[in-house]
């Protein structure tokens, strides 16, 4: 006897198997308005459980199960029937880029400051490349209108704003690193 918590899963598996057997046998199951098949779970007088598309004589109806028809075509390209009407949301994750801090009591050398400037230049270049590559809208960032065209939605503009912010932060970090390097140069 299966564990009671497995009963719904076993019933669904049996219903699917019954629907498949009905389809292969050529029997016409009862079709509800949505296009799925109705399968009846019945307990027979001798204790057997029978899944059928018809209510059998002498069987006690235990449960009615509606089985959706299989999706036609490629399941990866087929659109879902009940698509949620929730707009895409962008929640940026705050990233604080911290350069390594020299030990207390020790001043940064000119070579370390120059290395920080080079690193900041590379980070700025990477941020600009990401911004340039991110100009094209991603799937789900367009909303259709009645004219047949589409316009960009809030998720697209939020992503663009986030990329602009990254570029601005990288530019500010480069300015700080260059100023620190220039200060060390003037001390020497």
Q: Would you mind describing this structure in some detail?
A:
The protein has 188 residues and is α+β, with helices and mostly antiparallel strands. It folds into two domains: 4-67, no CATH class; 110-187. It is built from three helices and five strands; from the N terminus they run αβββαββα. The protein has helices spanning 7-25, 110-133, 154-187; strands at residues 37-43, 49-52, 60-67, 142-144, 150-152. The strands form two sheets. The chain has a three-stranded antiparallel β-sheet with strand order 2-1-3, covered by helices on one side. It has a two-stranded antiparallel sheet with strand order 4-5. A hairpin with a 5-residue loop joins strand 4 and strand 5 (150-152). Helix 2 (110-133) packs antiparallel against helix 3. The longest helix has 34 residues, at 154-187. It is elongated and about 100 Å long.
Secondary structure layout plus pairing:
Blueprint: H1 7-25, E1 37-43, E2 49-52, E3 60-67, H2 110-133, E4 142-144, E5 150-152, H3 154-187
Antiparallel strand pairs: 1-2, 1-3, 4-5
Q: Sketch the major β-sheet.
A: 3 strands, antiparallel
Ranges where pLDDT stays below 50 over 5 or more residues in a row are 23-33
Going across the major beta sheet, what is the strand order?
2-1-3
**Separation, N- and C-terminal Cα atoms:** 86 Å
Summing up helix and strand content along with how strands pair, one would put the structural category as alpha+beta
Estimated share of beta-strand residues: 5-15%
Cα radius of gyration in angstroms:
32 Å
Shape: elongated
